[in-house]
Protein backbone atom coordinates (compact mmCIF):
# COMPACT_ATOMS: atom_id res chain seq x y z
CA UNK A 1 0.00 0.00 0.00
CA UNK A 2 1.54 3.32 -1.03
CA UNK A 3 0.49 6.26 1.07
CA UNK A 4 0.81 9.87 -0.01
CA UNK A 5 2.32 12.78 1.89
CA UNK A 6 -1.25 14.15 2.17
CA UNK A 7 -2.16 10.98 4.03
CA UNK A 8 0.72 11.34 6.49
CA UNK A 9 -0.02 15.05 6.96
CA UNK A 10 -3.65 14.23 7.72
CA UNK A 11 -2.91 11.55 10.32
CA UNK A 12 0.11 13.28 11.84
CA UNK A 13 -1.54 14.21 15.13
CA UNK A 14 -2.58 10.62 15.82
CA UNK A 15 0.53 9.08 14.27
CA UNK A 16 2.35 8.21 17.47
CA UNK A 17 -0.75 6.65 18.98
CA UNK A 18 -1.53 4.68 15.82
CA UNK A 19 1.93 3.47 14.94
CA UNK A 20 4.36 4.46 17.71
CA UNK A 21 4.56 1.17 19.57
CA UNK A 22 4.79 -0.77 16.33
CA UNK A 23 7.67 1.35 15.03
CA UNK A 24 9.57 1.00 18.32
CA UNK A 25 9.23 -2.79 18.06
CA UNK A 26 10.59 -2.67 14.51
CA UNK A 27 13.57 -0.67 15.72
CA UNK A 28 14.02 -3.28 18.46
CA UNK A 29 14.49 -5.95 15.81
CA UNK A 30 17.52 -4.04 14.54
CA UNK A 31 18.85 -3.23 18.01
CA UNK A 32 18.97 -6.96 18.77
CA UNK A 33 21.05 -7.44 15.63
CA UNK A 34 23.42 -4.70 16.78
CA UNK A 35 23.89 -6.01 20.31
CA UNK A 36 27.14 -7.87 19.44
CA UNK A 37 28.63 -5.02 17.49
CA UNK A 38 32.06 -3.88 18.67
CA UNK A 39 31.86 -0.11 18.88
CA UNK A 40 35.17 1.65 18.56
CA UNK A 41 33.76 4.89 17.32
CA UNK A 42 32.89 7.63 19.73
CA UNK A 43 30.94 9.84 17.37
CA UNK A 44 28.35 8.88 14.80
CA UNK A 45 26.34 10.36 11.96
CA UNK A 46 22.89 8.89 11.34
CA UNK A 47 20.65 9.37 8.32
CA UNK A 48 16.96 8.45 8.53
CA UNK A 49 14.92 8.24 5.30
CA UNK A 50 11.20 8.86 5.91
CA UNK A 51 11.82 9.79 9.55
CA UNK A 52 8.19 10.81 10.19
CA UNK A 53 7.72 12.04 13.74
CA UNK A 54 10.97 10.27 14.83
CA UNK A 55 8.92 8.24 17.27
CA UNK A 56 11.52 5.45 17.59
CA UNK A 57 14.65 7.58 17.27
CA UNK A 58 15.11 8.41 20.98
CA UNK A 59 15.36 4.65 21.61
CA UNK A 60 18.09 4.33 18.98
CA UNK A 61 20.02 7.25 20.47
CA UNK A 62 19.60 5.85 23.95
CA UNK A 63 20.86 2.42 22.82
CA UNK A 64 23.94 3.95 21.15
CA UNK A 65 24.70 6.24 24.06
CA UNK A 66 25.14 3.12 26.23
CA UNK A 67 27.79 1.84 23.79
CA UNK A 68 30.50 4.38 24.48
CA UNK A 69 29.24 6.72 21.77
CA UNK A 70 29.53 10.27 23.03
CA UNK A 71 28.40 12.35 20.06
CA UNK A 72 25.60 11.79 17.52
CA UNK A 73 24.59 13.93 14.58
CA UNK A 74 21.19 12.87 13.24
CA UNK A 75 19.60 13.85 9.92
CA UNK A 76 15.95 12.98 9.29
CA UNK A 77 14.38 13.34 5.84
CA UNK A 78 10.62 13.34 5.26
CA UNK A 79 8.18 14.97 2.86
CA UNK A 80 5.37 15.42 5.42
CA UNK A 81 5.42 18.91 6.88
CA UNK A 82 3.30 17.99 9.90
CA UNK A 83 5.35 14.92 10.76
CA UNK A 84 8.58 16.89 10.46
CA UNK A 85 7.05 19.45 12.82
CA UNK A 86 6.27 16.70 15.35
CA UNK A 87 9.78 15.32 14.95
CA UNK A 88 11.19 18.76 15.69
CA UNK A 89 9.14 19.06 18.87
CA UNK A 90 10.22 15.59 19.99
CA UNK A 91 13.94 16.02 19.33
CA UNK A 92 13.95 19.50 20.80
CA UNK A 93 12.49 18.27 24.07
CA UNK A 94 14.12 14.92 24.64
CA UNK A 95 17.22 14.96 26.82
CA UNK A 96 20.07 12.64 25.96
CA UNK A 97 23.16 12.00 28.04
CA UNK A 98 25.41 12.55 25.03
CA UNK A 99 26.22 15.40 22.68
CA UNK A 100 23.24 15.13 20.32
CA UNK A 101 22.44 17.40 17.39
CA UNK A 102 19.87 17.02 14.66
CA UNK A 103 18.76 18.38 11.32
CA UNK A 104 15.36 17.74 9.77
CA UNK A 105 14.99 18.03 6.01
CA UNK A 106 11.49 18.56 4.64
CA UNK A 107 11.95 17.02 1.23
CA UNK A 108 11.36 14.00 -0.93
CA UNK A 109 13.80 11.14 -0.41
CA UNK A 110 14.75 11.19 -4.11
CA UNK A 111 15.45 14.91 -3.94
CA UNK A 112 17.72 14.32 -0.92
CA UNK A 113 19.60 11.62 -2.83
CA UNK A 114 19.97 13.88 -5.85
CA UNK A 115 21.31 16.68 -3.70
CA UNK A 116 23.89 14.47 -1.98
CA UNK A 117 26.59 12.95 -4.17
CA UNK A 118 27.70 10.76 -1.27
CA UNK A 119 25.95 9.51 1.85
CA UNK A 120 28.57 10.11 4.45
CA UNK A 121 26.80 8.55 7.45
CA UNK A 122 27.74 5.73 9.82
CA UNK A 123 24.18 4.46 10.17
CA UNK A 124 21.45 4.73 7.55
CA UNK A 125 18.03 3.76 8.84
CA UNK A 126 14.57 3.76 7.33
CA UNK A 127 11.56 2.32 9.16
CA UNK A 128 8.51 1.48 7.01
CA UNK A 129 9.02 4.27 4.51
CA UNK A 130 10.88 3.16 1.39
CA UNK A 131 7.83 1.37 -0.06
CA UNK A 132 6.31 4.85 -0.52
CA UNK A 133 9.23 6.34 -2.43
CA UNK A 134 9.62 6.87 -6.17
CA UNK A 135 11.54 3.61 -6.36
CA UNK A 136 12.73 3.87 -9.96
CA UNK A 137 14.62 6.99 -8.98
CA UNK A 138 15.57 5.92 -5.49
CA UNK A 139 16.78 2.34 -5.23
CA UNK A 140 19.68 2.13 -7.67
CA UNK A 141 21.03 5.53 -6.73
CA UNK A 142 20.76 4.60 -3.05
CA UNK A 143 22.56 1.28 -3.54
CA UNK A 144 25.33 3.02 -5.49
CA UNK A 145 25.86 5.52 -2.70
CA UNK A 146 26.11 3.18 0.28
CA UNK A 147 29.19 1.32 1.48
CA UNK A 148 28.38 -1.97 3.15
CA UNK A 149 31.87 -2.33 4.61
CA UNK A 150 31.70 0.93 6.49
CA UNK A 151 28.06 1.72 7.11
CA UNK A 152 25.33 0.05 9.07
CA UNK A 153 22.16 -0.06 7.00
CA UNK A 154 18.83 -0.83 8.67
CA UNK A 155 15.77 -0.83 6.41
CA UNK A 156 12.30 -2.11 7.19
CA UNK A 157 9.75 -2.28 4.39
CA UNK A 158 6.00 -2.84 4.69
CA UNK A 159 5.60 -6.33 3.28
CA UNK A 160 2.01 -5.95 2.15
CA UNK A 161 3.07 -3.07 -0.06
CA UNK A 162 2.47 -3.33 -3.80
CA UNK A 163 6.11 -2.45 -4.32
CA UNK A 164 7.57 -5.14 -2.05
CA UNK A 165 8.54 -7.52 -4.89
CA UNK A 166 10.28 -4.73 -6.74
CA UNK A 167 12.22 -3.80 -3.60
CA UNK A 168 13.06 -7.42 -2.71
CA UNK A 169 14.53 -7.93 -6.19
CA UNK A 170 17.09 -5.22 -5.52
CA UNK A 171 17.75 -5.77 -1.82
CA UNK A 172 17.81 -9.54 -1.53
CA UNK A 173 21.34 -9.98 -2.92
CA UNK A 174 22.72 -7.00 -1.06
CA UNK A 175 21.43 -7.33 2.51
CA UNK A 176 20.60 -9.92 5.12
CA UNK A 177 16.85 -10.31 5.24
CA UNK A 178 14.21 -11.41 7.74
CA UNK A 179 10.45 -11.28 7.34
CA UNK A 180 8.42 -9.93 10.23
CA UNK A 181 4.65 -9.81 10.64
CA UNK A 182 4.28 -6.45 8.94
CA UNK A 183 7.70 -5.56 7.60
CA UNK A 184 10.61 -7.19 5.82
CA UNK A 185 13.89 -6.30 7.49
CA UNK A 186 16.96 -5.69 5.33
CA UNK A 187 20.28 -5.01 7.05
CA UNK A 188 23.99 -5.65 6.94
CA UNK A 189 25.63 -7.50 9.78
CA UNK A 190 28.83 -5.65 10.56
CA UNK A 191 30.37 -7.23 13.63
CA UNK A 192 33.59 -5.30 13.95
CA UNK A 193 32.85 -1.65 13.38
CA UNK A 194 36.21 -0.12 13.95
CA UNK A 195 36.92 1.87 10.80
C1 LIG B 1 4.95 4.60 8.09
S1 LIG B 1 5.69 6.18 8.15
C2 LIG B 1 7.17 5.77 9.06
C3 LIG B 1 7.76 6.98 9.75
C4 LIG B 1 8.95 6.70 10.66
N1 LIG B 1 10.04 6.09 9.93
C5 LIG B 1 8.54 5.87 11.84
O1 LIG B 1 9.19 4.85 12.09
O2 LIG B 1 7.60 6.22 12.54
C6 LIG B 1 6.30 6.49 6.52
C7 LIG B 1 6.98 7.84 6.38
O3 LIG B 1 7.53 7.97 5.08
C8 LIG B 1 7.34 9.33 4.68
N2 LIG B 1 7.43 9.39 3.22
C9 LIG B 1 6.58 8.83 2.32
N3 LIG B 1 6.97 9.09 1.06
C10 LIG B 1 8.10 9.83 1.16
C11 LIG B 1 8.99 10.40 0.20
N4 LIG B 1 8.78 10.24 -1.11
N5 LIG B 1 10.06 11.09 0.64
C12 LIG B 1 10.27 11.25 1.98
N6 LIG B 1 9.47 10.74 2.93
C13 LIG B 1 8.39 10.03 2.54
C14 LIG B 1 5.98 9.68 5.23
O4 LIG B 1 5.76 11.07 5.29
C15 LIG B 1 6.03 9.01 6.58
O5 LIG B 1 6.57 9.85 7.56
What does this structure look like?
The structure is a single chain. This protein is of the alpha/beta class and 195 residues long. The protein contains seven helices and nine strands, in the order ααββαβαβαβαβαβββ. A seven-stranded mixed β-sheet has the order 4-3-2-5-6-8-7, with helices on one face. A two-stranded parallel sheet has the order 1-9. β2, α3 and β3 (71-78) form a beta-alpha-beta unit. α5 (109-115) crosses α6. It is globular. Bound molecules: S-adenosylmethionine.
Number of strands: 9
Q: What is the total domain count?
A: 1
- What percent of the residues sit in helical stretches (DSSP H or I)? 25-40%
| CATH architecture title | 3-Layer(aba) Sandwich
Task: Please tell me what the overall shape is.
Answer: globular
Q: Could you name the ranges where pLDDT drops below 50 across 5 or more consecutive residues?
A: none
Instruction: Give the biggest beta sheet.
Output: 7 strands, mixed
Mean pLDDT: 91
CATH class: Alpha Beta
Instruction: Determine the strand fraction and express it as a percent band.
Output: 15-25%
**Cross-sheet strand order for the largest sheet:** 4-3-2-5-6-8-7
The kinds of small molecule bound in this structure are: S-adenosylmethionine
Q: And the CATH topology?
A: Rossmann fold
H and E order: HHEEHEHEHEHEHEEE
Question: Over all CA atoms, what is the radius of gyration?
Answer: 16 Å
Structural class: alpha/beta
* Ends apart, CA distance between termini: 39 Å
- Quick one: CATH superfamily? Vaccinia Virus protein VP39
Amino acid sequence: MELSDDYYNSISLGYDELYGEEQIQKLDFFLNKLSDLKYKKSSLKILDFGCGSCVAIPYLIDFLSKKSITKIEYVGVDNSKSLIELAKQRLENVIFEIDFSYKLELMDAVEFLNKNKTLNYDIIISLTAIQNFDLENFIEDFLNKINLKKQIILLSILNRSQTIDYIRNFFIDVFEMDSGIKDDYFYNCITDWSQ
